[in-house]
Structure formats: C-alpha cells, structure tokens
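We treat protein structure as text, and this decision shapes the records that our systems exchange. Because each token names a local backbone shape, the row as a whole describes the fold. For reference, a complete record is included directly beneath this paragraph.
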Amino acid sequence: MEALAFLWPAGLYMISMTITPGPNNVMLTASGANYGFLRTLPHIFGIMGGCFLLFAGIALGLGLIFERYPAVQMTLRVLGSAYLLYLAWKIATAPPPDLRHRGEGRPLNFWQAAAFQFANPKAWVMGLALMAGFLPEGGDTMINALLLAGFAELVGFPCVALWAGFGMAISRWLHTPRAWRIFNGVMGGLTAACVIFILG
C-alpha cells in the first residue's frame, strides 16, 4: 500500500480540478438539461477516455512535442477554439426539448468528447500538473503513468457527472420555451467564453 501512497494526494488534486467550472463542465450542464443524464453518459465517458490518453501521453513524452514544436500546440488551439465556437452556437440556438423535432439535436458522442480533450487547455494544465507533481520517480514509468491516469479518471468521473446531474436538475425549473432559450443562450455564451482561455 505504501507504493500506492502517491495516489491519494493526486486524488484530492483531481477533485479540486474536475469539480470546478471549465469547458467540459459547462457543456455537460447544457447537455444534462437538454438531453438528460443517460444520453449525456457517452459525453462523460468520452471526457474520461480522452483525459486518460492525454495524461498518460504527457507522462510518456507527449508534452515534449509541444515544447519543441509550438506550431502543433497553436494548431490544436485554433482547431479546438473553432470547434468550441461551433458547439457554443449549437447550444445557444437549440430549441426547447418539447419543441425539438424527432432526432434533432444530439449530445456529444464518446469520440467527439475524447478528441476535444487534446485541445482543451484545462485538460492540459491538469495533466501536466498531475504528472509533474504526483508521478513517482521510482518504478516503471509506464505502469505508474497508466495507474495514475486511470486513478485520476476514476476520481474525476463523479465530479464531472455531477455537472450533468446539475443540468438535469435545472431543467425542472424551465417551464416555458422562453426560459429554455435564455438558459441555452447563457450556456452557449459561457461555452464560447472558454475560447478566451484557449487562445489567451
């Protein structure tokens, strides 16, 4: 058990990072409200899967690519910002659920959510700090990196899922089409505002 002692402070760090607002949590709130918790689960699992790959990749040398080739990082930032603005527009202009046509509007799927993590600055900050601060110097680096990344996602799952549940709870107070449009407009605006942090 002493060999795994590094996981507990890492878990506390992940709770503090994943339960606070960011692009993922804003989008999960909107998705939970508009589509419900169950339909938002692929989005949640996509965040977990994408962050797991990103965090493990950082520990195994992915961060060095960004240090050596700044153009790669900037390209991902621009693409991520463009995609985030597209999602913000979709959220802001989404009609109320009861006025939505059958099949119109869908939550993010697993792969879309996973791919977005590589352009999400908060995910990069979390991953870099997690691996720099909590990855043990001794032992097998790959095993420790996979273990730490996996544990981080186990801890993070209920924290981000809480935001989808929060959105679902908010939906119970939105009784009119106007209330839904205001809510979706605010969520879309908050999602778009995250671009400032990506390009800043």
